[in-house]
Amino acid sequence: MDIVARDGKLLLFVEVKTRRAVGGIRPLDAVNREKQRLIERGANAWLKRLGTRDLPWRFDVIEVLVEDGEKPRVNQVRDAF
Predict the structure, then answer these.
(1) What is the CATH number of domain 3-77?
(2) Is there a contact between 78 and 60 (Cβ–Cβ < 8 Å)?
């Protein structure tokens, strides 16, 4: 997991994936079940450190698509898994 953030009372666990736009593979596709388990483990460690599981939380993925000479395109996938 790359980012832990808050949006009001909501705790966000965010994975950022960057891919070349010409590859045709969505960055979200790189967050497979194994990667999701690792992110979930990290989220559980954060919640344990905070001393509560009563906070609302969600998992997001930020997709960054890059192409030579172009401004990167960024897409937030909320509640990705």
Answers:
(1) 3.40.1350.10
(2) yes
Q: Minimal CA–CA distance to 6: which of 49, 81, 60?
A: 60
Do residues 69 and 43 touch, judged by C-beta distance below 8 A?
A: no
Question: Do the beta carbons of residue 5 and residue 50 sit within 8 Å?
Answer: no
pLDDT of 52-65, one tens digit each? 989 999 999 999 99
Looking at residue 11, what is its pLDDT?
97
Residue 23 has pLDDT above 80, yes or no: no
Q: How many residues does the chain have?
A: 81
Residue from 48, 10, 15 nearest 29 by CA: 15
Alpha helices in 1-81 (DSSP H): 33-50
- State which amino acid sits at residue 13: F
Are residues 15 and 25 in contact, defined by beta-carbon separation less than 8 angstroms? no
8-state DSSP, 79: T
